């Protein structure tokens, strides 16, 4: 098994998509009692801490959150490892390769704070009964789990207990503010979050926790940046901590917050979130009916994409009715598939087919207004329709009036917040354009 030893010691076995990693995981999935699995379990006792860390990671990946008693036993032995990171990774493996009873027993028997905290963290709801544990981080996690399902009448005492333990819990538990914020969001407790942030920020000992909670709130609720940005600025102090700087960066993503509190932001140093990349801004070709017709003649009838479609069909519609072939092309671009092209071509089809096409077009467009990939284009399309898009106002208004962020998928929470801000701005612009056209 020399190849396995070399792959682990070089870090190749934990490198995503590396052939060595693929080979190791495939071998273990095929046979958990085979030579690869047996050798990995042996390497969990290697003298090199780096190797032990790698093995804990590999065993966790191979376990796939399914019982694996041999791996859990190896991890139990590493809960007292001299290396902090080995112990932390072993805690995860004990929980997900063993049983919760085994992990809870280890949590009760061990005294080392970091290991006990890690076990409690991975055990999730199974630690809810440990609210009187001697370790603050374990008590904090236990009360958070209780808060997830507690009725409203139990919230005040749980809030007080969490607040009392937050500072001490942060010594061994990372992301106290973020964790707390996620639970409060799940319970729909927006106003409670703002009050807790204010209390946490007032105390220098819990200020970073308050910043973390504020940042999470800005990721979750659209009104949070407007509410919390003044508090963040007020409690920045002469030196801004990394947690506070991150909270300010996130709060500044909100256009409403920057409009309301831009002068406050100007007085503190923070790193703005990088602006989204836009198309290169090439000059749009100028079309008349002749050049536009030539472009369409060179394209198949069932074309699915067409650069500068609004300019091309706009030039033709300005000159007169579309030919049967051109209308078929526009029909395919509008109705074949959802996406940017459909959103851009829908107003053109309305110009061609007239108001009778409106219900069908709006039925295609309004369901996509909140889509983080395509929503901006659909709002833009409705704006181009002007007064004809009046029936879409309830859908636009519902999107604008949301208190929570729209679901999005980006590599960071800040990126997802920015996507929501862009969708919100596009919907506001569309509603403004429709109402302005109606008033003229």
Report on the structure:
This protein is mainly alpha-helical. 65% of the residues lie in helices and 0% in strands. The chain is built from 24 helices and no strands. The chain has helices at 2-10, 19-30, 35-43, 49-63, 69-77, 84-97, 100-109, 113-123, 136-149, 155-169, 176-186, 190-202, 207-220, 224-234, 242-251, 255-265, 289-297, 309-319, 324-335, 340-353, 358-365, 375-385, 393-400, 413-439. Helix 8 (113-123) runs parallel beside helix 9 (136-149). The longest helix is centred in the last third of the chain and has 27 residues, at 413-439. The protein is globular and about 85 Å long. The termini are far apart. The model has no long low-confidence stretch (mean pLDDT 95).
């Amino acid at each position: 098994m020399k190849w396995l030893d070399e792959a682990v010691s070089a870090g190749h076995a934990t490198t995503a998509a590396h052939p060595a990693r693929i080979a190791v995981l495939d071998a273990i999935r095929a046979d958990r009692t085979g030579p690869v699995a047996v050798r990995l379990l042996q390497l969990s006792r290697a003298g090199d801490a780096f190797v032990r860390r790698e093995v804990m990671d590999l065993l966790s990946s191979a376990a796939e959150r399914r019982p694996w008693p041999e791996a859990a036993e190896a991890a139990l032995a590493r809960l007292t490892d001299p290396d902090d990171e080995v112990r932390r990774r072993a805690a995860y493996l004990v929980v997900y390769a063993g049983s919760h009873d085994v992990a809870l027993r280890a949590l009760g028997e061990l005294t080392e704070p970091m290991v006990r905290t890690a076990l409690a963290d991975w055990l999730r709801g199974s630690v809810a009964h440990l609210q009187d544990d001697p370790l603050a981080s374990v008590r904090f996690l236990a009360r958070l789990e209780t808060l997830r399902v507690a009725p409203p009448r139990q919230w005040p005492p749980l809030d007080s207990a969490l607040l009392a333990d937050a500072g001490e819990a942060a010594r061994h538990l990372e992301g106290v503010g973020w964790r707390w914020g996620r639970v409060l969001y799940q319970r729909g407790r927006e106003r409670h979050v703002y009050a807790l942030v204010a209390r946490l920020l007032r105390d220098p000992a819990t200020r970073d926790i308050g910043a973390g909670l504020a940042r999470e709130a800005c990721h979750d609720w659209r009104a949070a940046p407007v509410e919390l940005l003044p508090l963040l600025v007020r409690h920045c102090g002469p030196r801004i901590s990394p947690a506070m700087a991150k909270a300010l960066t996130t709060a500044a993503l909100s256009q409403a917050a920057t409009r309301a509190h831009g002068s406050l932001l100007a007085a503190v140093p923070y790193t703005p979130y990088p602006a989204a990349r836009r198309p290169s801004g090439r000059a749009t070709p100028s079309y008349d009916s002749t050049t536009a017709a030539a472009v369409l003649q060179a394209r198949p009838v069932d074309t699915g994409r067409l650069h500068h479609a609004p300019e091309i069909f706009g030039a033709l519609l300005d000159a007169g009715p579309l030919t049967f072939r051109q209308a078929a092309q526009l029909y395919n671009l509008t109705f074949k598939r959802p996406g940017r092209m459909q959103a851009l071509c829908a107003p053109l089809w309305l110009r061609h087919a007239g108001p009778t096409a409106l219900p069908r077009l709006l039925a295609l467009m309004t369901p996509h207004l909140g889509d983080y990939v395509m929503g901006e284009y659909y709002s833009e399309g409705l704006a181009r329709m002007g007064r004809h898009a009046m029936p879409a106002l309830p859908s636009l208004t519902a999107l604008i009036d949301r208190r929570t962020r729209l679901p999005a998928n980006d590599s960071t929470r800040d990126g997802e917040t920015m996507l929501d801000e862009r969708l919100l701005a596009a919907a506001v612009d569309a509603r403004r354009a429709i109402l302005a056209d109606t008033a003229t």
